[in-house]
Amino acid sequence: MLIASWQRWTQPIIDHGREMNLPARILAGEQLYTDVQFLYGPFTPYFNALLYRVFGIHLSTLHTSGAICAFLILLMIYWLARQLMGVWESALTAGVVIVICALKSTANYIQPYSYAALYGLVFALCSLVSTVRYLQLCRSRWMFLAGVCAGLALISKQELAAAALAAAVVALVFSSLAAHKLQWRDLLICTLPVVLISIGAYGWILRNVPWRTLVDLNYVFGANLPPQLSYYNRNLSGLNEWPRSFWYSLTGIGILGMWIGLCLLLGALSSYHRRSKWRAVAARALGIAILSLAWWKFVSEFFRVRPDTPLASAPFVLPVMVSLLFWQIWRGRREGDSIPLERRLLLVIAVFATVSIARVFFNVTGSGPYTPFFLPTLTIVYLFLLFHLSPAYFVPAGMIRDNARRAAMAVVAITIFIVGLNSARQFRGNNRYEISEQRGSFLVEPRIGEPLAAAIRYAREHTTLDDYVLVLPQGTAINFLAERRYPLRQEIVHPGFLEGRNEADAVQRIVSRRVPLILIDNILTPEIRDQAFGIDFNQNLLRWIQENYRLTARFGPISGREALLGDPEFFILAYELKQSKSENIKIGTNEPRINTDATERHGLNPR
User: Fold this and answer.
1) C-alpha 523 chain-centroid distance
2) Residue 367 neighbours by CB distance under 10 Å
3) d(CA 503, CA 416)
4) Are 46 and 52 spatial neighbours (Cβ–Cβ below 8 Å)?
5) Positive or negative, the Cα torsion across 590, 595, 600, 601?
6) Concatenated DSSP letters for 105-127?
7) What is the pLDDT of residues 432-478, one digit of tens each?
């Protein structure tokens, strides 16, 4: 997969530009949260800035860090699966994570949408591994390590830390039940590093950053979110499409049932030559598959939903599994039975997986930039369900059960091969245009790469190293690769980020930094409600740019007419400053007068 995807991990126009450029800005002396907006914890930007300082400001520095994190994640997923399953089953689990998380055409660990999510996942899984070792060995030092890793996850990305802490709490509950008293010492040992790391990190930040700036302008703790960002979060969780998203998740049960039925049927058919009850098992498996297919067909057609993975059923499967495991453990304790270690480990991993999907609860999918960060532990739970729980429930012990498990492994292995081959074909088929600069090189889709390369060349030719170049609304990969400074706090100008005083502040920054070149890329963001910059959001800022800058170049396709902002095609517009002295620029942003005819000729008229 690495060979097939080589140098094809970067999507430079979306979030990846921020991930490249932000650490370089910190290394140049800018202050996180004050000079540079950042929505997550402080660990990642400063760590990546340290990597730049040690290994050089180059894209390969980030890629190497991502590859090391990918290796660690796969190693921990294999180890966690190995605590519940055999060698080959665990290897298949890691294989699934490789093709749907680590190296997939829609997302990957080498160049993730956010290194904060990547590092947060590494720390959260380290915490989960430590929690599992605590359950196995009952030694407090493992709970201390779980707390340290959870604290590091908390200053990277908060929701991943929540999963780690939930798993640790469950382990402490088990320990307290076994000891017949609350394990205060272990609870304190786990909690103390989380508190100290969080207070230490944010206390260090708050020395120079006002609390209101951290909360109101960076949204680190989810407070005062712009309505567009709240819309995006609801869209991500599926709540914007409720109750359609509910049926989407429920339909996933049909896909899961078809997988279970198919594996059981193959196991029964492979046992036909034995003197066994293979016919009864085959009939049962066929019934499960047919009923699941009927359910999937009915709901998907009636409610117009198309889940792409059995994992879509997680909002129902995980809570049911967690509840049943809790009930079995509680009943066993009341009856004086010892609690099997495997059951406790499964419960801890299932709780981690449940909290991991909280942000996408009714929108669990097999594609998209967030997939790699909530699916790994979910994969462990589902493959354990497929390899062990379903054969144990539906098939009597003996040869047929073993064959059903082997059939499930064969089906998963074939799926891994097909998904991996499809991703490899997409990587190599789509990403063919090479962008090669001093700070890094990569292959990207020609429709993105050609305008991007032209814009980078233009920025190099029309500005100097000391100049600022403004790229709106996204795409500071241009600044990184062209080695040009960026004037705004917002590396990404999402809808709602520049409104009112923030928009006036942005104009003031453009003026004070004497920005000679502004690049506007036409990228649509319907998932954040407002689609096009200058059309659906920040119209005043676009009008101000039109008054004070002139359109000098356009990079991208022209099909029959000049492309308009808001069109589906990707293109980049270049604006250069009209006046020679920035002091003459108009600073007011309150509905400046526009020459409508001129804007129509330039392809900038709101439709």
Assistant:
1) 20
2) 13
3) 48
4) no
5) negative
6) TTEESSS-S-HHHHHHHHHHHHH
7) 999 999 999 999 999 999 999 999 999 999 999 999 999 999 999 99
Give kind and range of the element (H or E) at residue 316.
helix 314-334
DSSP codes, 392-423:
HHHS-TTHHHHHHHHHHHHHHHHHHHHHHHHH
Q: What span, in angstroms and rounded, lies between the C-alpha atoms of 313 and 252?
A: 4
- Whole-model pTM? 0.93
Sorted by sequence, the CB contacts under 8 Å of residue 357 that are 6+ apart come out as 314, 315, 318, 364, 374, 378
DSSP string, 565-586: TTSSS--EEEEEESSSSGGGS-
d(CA 388, CA 85): 8
d(CA 370, CA 215): 24
Task: Encode pLDDT of 52-93 as tens digits.
Answer: 999 999 999 999 999 999 999 999 999 999 999 999 999 999
Q: What's 197-219 look like in SS3?
A: HHHHHHHHHCCCCCHHHHHHHCC
Buried b (16+ CB within 10 A) or exposed e, 542-566: bbbbbebbebeebbbeeeeeebbbb
Location of structure tokens 């001129």: 598
Q: pLDDT value at position 274?
A: 60
Cis peptide leading into residue 516 (ω within 30°): no
Over the stretch 133-172, which tens digit does the pLDDT of each residue have?
999 999 999 999 999 999 999 999 999 999 999 999 999 9
pLDDT in tens, 331-386: 877 777 777 899 999 999 999 999 999 999 999 998 888 999 999 999 999 999 99
Query: How many residues does this entry show for the chain?
Result: 607
Both structure tokens of 552: 């000098």
Q: Which of 446, 386, 376, 390 is nearest to 412 (CA)?
A: 386
What is the pairing mode between strands 517-521 and 469-472? parallel
**534-540: average pLDDT:** 93
Identify the three-state secondary structure at position 375.
Answer: coil
Kindly calculate the radius of gyration of the chain based on its CA atoms and give it in whole angstroms: 27
- Spatial separation of the C-alpha atoms in residues 491 and 511, rounded to whole Å: 18
Tell me how far apart the alpha carbons of residues 99 and 96 are, in angstroms, rounded to a whole number: 5
User: Shortest CA distance to 466 belongs to which of 514, 501, 535, 407?
Assistant: 514
Letter for the amino acid at 223? A
- What is the SS3 assignment for 557? coil
| Residue reference for tokens 């989407």 | 248
Pairing of strands 517-521, 440-444: unpaired
What are the structural domain ranges in the chain? 16-223, 445-601
Amino acid, single-letter form, for residue 158: Q
User: Is the separation of the CB atoms in 79 and 130 below 8 Å?
Assistant: no
Packing angle, helices 278-303 and 244-269, rounded to 10 = 160
279 vs 202: CA distance, rounded Å: 64
